[in-house]
Structure formats: structure tokens, C-alpha cells
Amino acid sequence: MSATNQEKNFDYQEELPADKAQTLASLKTYNKNPPDQTERHLREICQKSWNIFPHGCIGHWLFLDCAITSLPEYPAIIERIKAGNVLDAGCAFGYAL
User: Fold this and answer.
1) pTM beyond 0.85
2) Cα torsion at 93, 59, 28, 33 (round to 10°)?
3) Over the range 48-86, which residues count as b (16 or more CB within 10 Å of their CB) and which as e?
4) What gap in Å lies between CA 78 and CA 97, rounded to an integer?
5) Residue 35 gets which letter from DSSP?
6) CA–CA gap between residue 75 and residue 58 (Å, rounded)
7) Which of 22, 28, 57, 56 is nearest to 42 (CA)?
8) What is the pLDDT of residues 33-50, one digit of tens each?
9) Domain map of the chain by residue range?
10) In this predicted structure, what is the pLDDT of residue 97?
11) Residue 11 CA to chain centroid, in angstroms?
């Protein structure tokens, strides 16, 4: 993303926010990329996604939040998905389901 595009939209944060460190550490352990390339890979995903759909949840790296898993309804959601009943009303990436 060019500086000009970033200046036009305040929703894009180029740097990975510090509060995503725990998720980054987990991804370094579990993804298929070498750990030293994980952050670069995430930046590429964020930038490519932003170029397609410049939405705040992408620009603020909210796709790295796993907040849905802490909801009391989460186990019921998973059971409904397993039963074939799902309505995806998520934000950009539905990795937690």
C-alpha cells in the first residue's frame, strides 16, 4: 500500500499492533510458514485484503482477534456448524469457526 493510500484512510495500521503478540506467537507455532516469516506473511495478507476491501476490521488487524472463542455461546455455535446449520456473520476472515 502506498503512503498516499494510507494518508487517505485512517483505518489502516501498517504495523502489527502490540496487542496481537499472543496470536502472532500461536501462529508461529501452528502455521505452515517458518516462524521467522510469519509476521511478513500476515502483513501480506493484511495488505492484499485491504486492497480488495478497505474495511476497518482488516486495517486494524482485528482478524487476529479470537474474541468469539471466549463467548459463552461459542460451544453451541460449533455444535450448530457441525450439524450443518451456520450463518456466517463474521468480520472478513472466519478462521475461528
Assistant:
1) no
2) 70
3) ebbeeeeeebbbbbbbbbeeeeeeeeeeebeeeeeeeee
4) 7
5) G
6) 26
7) 28
8) 899 999 999 999 999 999
9) 3-65
10) 56
11) 15
